[in-house]
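Entry 14: structure prediction run for NAD-dependent succinate-semialdehyde dehydrogenase. Input pasted below.
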Amino acid sequence: MKHLKNYINGNWTEGDAGSFSVNNPATGEVLAMVPKASPEQVRGAVDDAETAFRFWSKETAETRSNHLRRLYDLILENVEELGRTITLEQGKPLKEGIGEVRYGASFVQWYSEEAKRVTGEMIPASHKNKRIMVLKQPVGVVAAITPWNFPFAMITRKIAPALAAGCTVIIKPASQTPISAIKIMELVEKAGFPKGVVNLVTGDAASIGNVFLDHKKIKKITFTGSTEVGKELYRGAADTVKRISLELGGHAPFILFDDGKLFDSIQGALASKFRNCGQACISSNRFYVQQGIQAEFIEGLKIQLKSFRQGNGLTSDTDLGPLIDQRAYEKVSDHVTDALSKGAALEYRGDIPAKKPNGEGGYFYPPTILSGIGPDMKIYREETFGPVIPIIPFREEEELLTMANDSDYGLAAYVYTQDLSRALRVSEALEYGIIGLNDGAPSTAQAPFGGFKESGIDREGGHYGIEPFLETKYISIGL
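Run finished. Output tokens:
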């Protein structure tokens, strides 16, 4: 049994509030015991990060860049081990775990370069004896709260721009998947980051979150997770008027027009729906298919899904892993049961992996296709976060746009068509922050990631992603 530690002010520390276990969702195996940090420990970490901020914020951009570059190199040197860690604690296939590590590393690489591109400006003054100077300065200590579905990449996507800007950070990873975060801290230490610049606390989300909200030295919170928790943080941040970035839930429409390339759309659907067993905020959740192509689309999906292998992510031929826990399994099952009880048709359901003698089986939900989905069904309105494709037919473009935009969420949408005019019209009309136009995998480090409506605030990625960690200061100079 591994007993892991938190990383605070350059030291590996036990938790003052006890410990908790981390389990493999594919097998139920206990992987490690992880510390629960007490509120006092978290407050101490904030104080340490604020002390470190005083010198880290004054380091040259080149120094910060070099530290991030060393971290990037170390990640690539350990990509197999890191990918395996993700698979063990999160469940996704090893090839996806390794892919996540490379994706997460790309943010460290990007912001190692972006650190050198934070610039202000001189603005022409309205008086001869004045000059106007604008500076960009780091906001201060940043609290980063990250989810379980991408336990590596969601950390690097937050801390890399913060560190590049000159901020110091405290990370609170999801309790289901803290081991990946601890592995990152090991590499942070090897990369030579000064004490207190990067810190990690694990434990009870509510108690740690309350410290982040109440502590005046925390100047910004960046959070990826559910819309419900995001709203609580948004309300709580008001008392100290903290900056806050929120990347919240999604309910992505996948739109296939009858002139779309059938093979490409099927591959895009598989990529956007079944990556991480459907447990991604940009996973397609509502499949709007024009009536003339619906039967072919469903048949093509069935053919592909019959070759899918579901099981332990460490097995080399696994295409689909388990859901993260019992609660996630019950939600997916409830959505499917509700849809079937209200008239949906079951078009396809895969086989659940057989239980092994050692008890292996975990929270496996089979890939499923439903048709005849209507607005009275939970799966139409709520984010499923599982491997289910609900098919909703449509006739005309205007009807489609009304249905696709009928959601409180606005993170990602996917459109398949070969008509250029339609592609532009629909992309512009969709109320979503990310559009995959004939593309089922739009995420990349150099582009802005974020949503409209209740899907969040601010953007991560590209030069847009460093701005939320910077203050704008105006200096009026009299000569």
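Notes: The CA atoms of residues 133 and 475 lie 5 Å apart. Will compare against the previous run tomorrow.
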